[in-house]
Amino acid sequence: MAADFSEQMKRTFLILSLCALVGGLPVPAAAQFFRRAEQAHDDVAAWVIADATTGFLLDSANAGRKLQVGSITKIATALVVLDWAADKSENLGQQATVPGTVAALNSPNSIGLKPGDRIALREALYAAMMESDNQAAETLAVHVGRVLGGGSADQEAADYFVAQMNALARRLGMRDTRFLNAHGLDDLERKLPYSTAGDIAKLTNYALGHGGFTFYTSQKQRRITWQTGSGDTTGALLQNTNELLGVSGVDGVKTGTTRKAGPCVVISSAQRPESREVNGTHEITPRRLTVVVLGAQRRFDTARGLLTRGWALLDQWAAAGRPMKGWKAGQ
What we know:
The structure is a single chain. By secondary structure, the protein is an alpha+beta fold. The chain has a single domain (2-319), classed as Beta-lactamase. It contains nine helices and nine strands. The strands form three sheets. The protein has a five-stranded antiparallel β-sheet with strand order 2-1-9-8-7, sandwiched between helices. It starts with a helix and ends in a 12-residue tail after the last helix.
């Protein structure tokens, strides 16, 4: 009885929180409110709420619309590096030389890497994922691309690395995604890179299943060091660009902004381990939500509201037996 009461109180709290968020509407009306509100605002191009455990989309708007995603691209960059390191038992402490190709990259969050500097792959991952440093992402691409067999020239190695990013996207069923570089800038290529909120959710859910991924995205601050071309040691205190870290259980994932993409953010949140009986066996399953917001001027406010909504939808979906087809938010 105590457990049932506790569970009921949790569910009641979630519903009341949602109702307060949307002005006292009941959950079905709240679903319609959110749908109208998000689609009515021109500053929200697309969004997705997904159950990270199964990948099921709990709700979305324009999930299949092809858009530029800016530095959200770096999620794929990190995964190619991490998959390669895990598959080949490579040490992420190995040093990479910052390539000459970084000189052409615009990076408002630059930590100051220069061609000829030497930085550990691990430190470059932190810089790319926390500070969204474009030079760090390019350094990862050139170094790993060359090791994978992409040729000795910097651009050849980077292009080979990007081919691995697109191969990963195909493997994950991201049918509406095209990566053109490892950093996400969309004003340097003849063509435009693109993805969708639905595809980014697939990529993020795969990333969340990777043992070390969240270690690079969940920290608010971290000091890193590297060697300059002259051999001196220098460093930087990284500040995570994700303002929602630590809010409502958010422990990742990535922000992104370009003129074409607008402000974007992907967040994940792990809360409320779910207890249930399966074939006479008591199981506890940790639940995690993934929220993708593309092209939203108030991206953090939008993502936080959708996360709150997502937990209420997860309860509804679970109560319906977690159907993978035919279920709609607000039913």
